[in-house]
Amino acid sequence: MFDKMLQISLLYDFYGQLLTEKQQEVVQLYYNNDYSLGEISEQLNVSRQAVYDTIKRTEKVLFEYEEKLGLVEKFINTQKDIERILEIVEKIEHQIGSAKADLSDFREEIKRIRTISMDILENSP
Description:
Blueprint: H1 4-15, H2 21-32, H3 37-44, H4 48-69, H5 71-97, H6 103-123
Helix pairs in contact: 1-2, 1-4, 2-4, 3-4, 5-6
Function: Might take part in the signal recognition particle (SRP) pathway. This is inferred from the conservation of its genetic proximity to ftsY/ffh. May be a regulatory protein.
Pfam family, one: UPF0122
InterPro entries: RNA_pol_sigma_r3/r4-like, UPF0122, UPF0122_fam_protein, WH-like_DNA-bd_sf
C-alpha cells in the first residue's frame, strides 16, 4: 500500500469508531500527534510497554477490519477511477479547444466516462 503512518491513519479514519476509547486515544496520540511511547505513557499513567502493546494490538485490529470490510481499498480504487474520469474530461476540454476535433473523438471519450462511472456505481455499497 504505502508507508505505515499513512496506512494506519487511513485505516483509523475508516475504522476508528470501532475501536475502544483507550485504543482511539493511543492511536490519536501516537500517529496523529506524533507523541513518543514515553510521552503517551506519562500522559495516560501507564507503562511504555502497555502503550506499545496497545499500539500493536490496535494496528492488528485495524488491518483485520480492512481485510474483512475492504473500505480503504474501495476508497482508493474509487479515487483512481475519479482521477481517470477527470483526465478524460480534461482531454475532451482540450479537444473542444482545438479546431481539429471531430464528433467521433467525443463519442469515444464519452463512452469511456460512462464505463468508468458505471464501474464506480456498481462497486459502491
